[in-house]
Design brief:
Blueprint (H helix, E strand, L loop, with lengths): L1 H29 L8 H13 L2 H23 L8 H39 L2 H7 L4 H39 L4 H11 L2 H27 L4 H31 L1
Helix pairs in contact: 1-6, 2-6, 3-4, 3-6, 4-6, 4-7, 4-8, 4-9, 6-8, 8-9
């Protein structure tokens, strides 16, 4: 009986946590219409999430495109289908790897910073000070970060797609000697706007997920510096796992 009780408590704890995250997300999404919201905070967070994460995203995307092109070339050469390398690289990036890699990189770069910043504010009682001043801390702190992730991820994903395709072009055309017209023709023939926009939809969802989970974990930190470190770890791991899990369901829905 104790085993069933333990399993029941675990499931109830999970459902309680999911419900709490959803409620915080709804409050944060609606916070843009509340007095505590500041547009300048949104601009600051857009710079932190977007501009500050661009380098790591672009470097990762470039080498991902290079690896895709090399692996596709090695595999397709056995069937004399090297002309499809451009299509494989482009479809892989626009549909899946572009938004997923961007989400994971931004989670490690900016999501961890969100959790650490809000966690430090919680353990030093700065969030309590906001509450004592009748300022809604969820709206003041979480709303700008949530919308920053929602708005910045699609732009970073577009850059990642373009740079990744350029990396595939470099390997295929410059290193392996494929004619550039063949590489570009395969892209225009097999990649359409649906593939591109489906990746942007995923990017918007991933940006919202990583911002919400990172802010939530940091907001509910406790236990001093060790608690902040634990919250950052949980935020990064849970955001990364959520992105990969949600990616499957979005793929099943979009395609």
């Amino acid at each position: 009986m104790s085993l069933f009780a333990w399993v029941g408590r675990r499931f109830l704890s999970i459902f309680e946590k999911v419900g709490s995250v959803c409620i915080a997300g709804l409050v944060a999404l609606g916070g843009v219409f509340r007095p505590a919201f500041r547009w300048v905070n949104l601009i600051v967070q857009l710079v932190r999430v977007g501009a500050d994460s661009s380098l790591v995203v672009l470097v990762t995307a470039f080498f991902t495109g290079m690896v895709l092109a090399l692996q596709a070339w090695i595999g397709f050469r056995k069937f004399n289908a090297e002309s499809l390398v451009g299509a494989v690289v482009s479809l892989s990036l626009t549909r899946e790897l572009g938004p997923v890699i961007t989400g994971l990189m931004v989670t490690g770069r900016s999501g961890s910073a969100m959790a650490a910043e809000l966690g430090s504010m919680r353990v030093t009682e700065q969030i309590d000070a906001l509450e004592s001043l009748a300022v809604n801390p969820v709206v003041y702190l979480m709303t700008p970060r949530l919308y920053a992730g929602f708005l910045a991820l699609p732009f970073l994903t577009v850059l990642a797609d373009l740079v990744g395709i350029a990396g595939g072009y470099f390997v295929s055309v410059v290193l392996l000697g494929m004619p550039s017209t063949v590489y570009m023709r395969s892209i225009t023939r097999y990649v359409d706007l649906h593939d591109f926009f489906s990746g942007l939809v995923k990017a918007c969802v991933f940006g919202t997920i990583l911002s919400l989970l990172s802010c939530y974990m940091g907001y509910h930190s406790k236990g001093g510096a060790a608690g902040v470190g634990k919250s950052v770890t949980i935020a990064v791991v849970s955001s990364s796992m959520a992105i990969l899990v949600v990616d499957y369901f979005l793929t099943a829905w979009l395609f």
